Predict the structure.
Amino acid sequence: MDIRLATEADLPELQGIYAHHVLHGTGTFEEVPPSVEEMAGRLAAVADKGGVWLVGTDATGVLGYAYYAQFRERSAYRFCVEDAVYVREDVRGQGVGKALVGRLLEMAEARGIRQMVAVIGDSENVGSLGVHASLGFARVGVLRAAGLKFGRWLDVIYMQRALGAGDADVPGG
């Protein structure tokens, strides 16, 4: 598998992967799949704000994607990012998500990011919970019954991992 920065040419496949998760999964709380044009806007917004959007590909096309963006808009969050990862249904459980998030961690640390947060939809999302735990993320919180999708209440799990020096010092200080 090759991992590289996502491009506009990847958008139809990205949209297809995400649409599947929207329509059939609880890892995202969206209920209507965004269009390719909306996905283009999201890709641009991540890049415009200093984030990174990666794709994993092979001869069959895009296997999955992952990105990070600043956790919240306020400037004090400038050293904290949130990740997201989605994998094509036919290759789930084959290490695609772990490889993508692993590369995000490397890139974020190289850019001086100190914390990465995963906001995982559905406490039963064992794939995402397992990928993040295997990469050193710790479970730090739960929002009980924060979403309602497919006729059931869904929790949101927060996981976090320090990068580089974490909170051991203050950047630039």
Notes: Helices lie at 11-24, 36-48, 96-110, 126-134. The mean pLDDT is 97. The CA atoms of residues 72 and 101 lie 19 Å apart. Strands lie at 2-5, 52-58, 61-70, 80-87, 115-121, 138-149, 152-162.
